[in-house]
Amino acid sequence: MGFIQIIRNILLAFCLLLSLVATGLLAHYAHYTIINEFGGVAIHPFQILGFVTGVLSVILIPVMMIGKHTVILDLIGMLIFWVLWLTEMVLLKQHRLKRFGRFRVNFACTTFSASYCYETFVIQNLLITLVALSLFHILTLFIYALVCHFNGSPIWSTSMRRLNKPVQAPPFIPGQMATPGVMQMPITYYNPAPMSYEPEKPVSSHVTGASNSHGEPVVIVPSEPKIV
Q1: What is the C-alpha separation between 146 and 142, in angstroms, rounded?
Q2: For residue 197, what are the β-bridge partners?
Q3: Cα torsion at 108, 111, 114, 118 (round to 10°)?
Q4: In terms of C-beta density within 10 A (0-12 exposed, 13-18 middle, 19 or more buried), how is residue 9 classed?
Q5: Range(s) of the domain holding residue 118
Q6: Three-state DSSP state, 201
Q7: Which partner for 100 in 107, 117, 160, 195 could form a disulfide, CB atoms 3.0-4.6 Å apart?
């Protein structure tokens, strides 16, 4: 497992933990809105969205940590979670302003309404953390994929389990080139034909009628055999 995978799994595990805590607090706050809501029983949109997001995080985040999917699917999945957590955070903030106004949260609050106001404050901060972590995950993985794409080795369809995996040299096979990244071609050896000697026909020595500058006769000597 590479360095990127280790950091990513730690981040996803932390997101799963925060999502479970936020969902549990939402379930506890739903008891307050159902019993004490003015005008009857009420379930607010941020609560429904929070329960759906919590169930999806319990199912999908462990699957994403296994990493059998591709990089592009991981980016799409985290983008969906980022949109859900961001929407839930905005809806919860609107509900807090409407229900409690600008009530100043006191850590030593004892009244019934103040305790639930503080609970919504904690949920909102958990959602802010989840939005920041998911955005960091998306930007980091997207930038890394873009760098690999422009370097000539795209990883969009690469499995997350193989991402940043140490490169292993291929085994050496006699008669083949083992250079990674280069198309392997069989090696052929050139065996030259054996050398043969083809001697010329012998020429008998004889004296010609020609003479040199000193008046001596010219003698023809047979040449040596040539190598072909």
Answers
A1: 6
A2: 227
A3: 50
A4: middle
A5: 1-164
A6: coil
A7: 117
| Residue 58 · residue 20 · CB < 8 Å | yes
> For the chain, how many structural domains are there in total?
1
Residue 51: inside a domain, yes or no? yes
In a domain, 32, yes or no: yes
Give the separation between CA 91 and CA 104, rounded to whole angstroms.
Answer: 19
Give the least confident one: 37-41, 76-80, 205-209.
205-209
Q: What is the largest CA-CA distance in the chain?
A: 146
Lowest mean pLDDT among 85-89, 124-128, 204-208: 204-208
Angle between helices 45-66 and 3-36 (to 10 degrees): 160
Residues 120-174 pLDDT 10s: 889 999 999 999 999 999 999 999 999 988 988 888 888 887 775 544 445 556 5
Record the tokens describing residue 197, joined without a space.
């000697």
pLDDT at 105: 52
Give SS3 for 211: strand
Calculated CA dihedral for residues 198, 203, 204, 206, nearest 10 degrees: -150
pLDDT at 178 over 80: no
Domain assignment present for residue 137? The answer is: yes
- Decide if 96 contacts 124 (C-beta within 8 A): yes
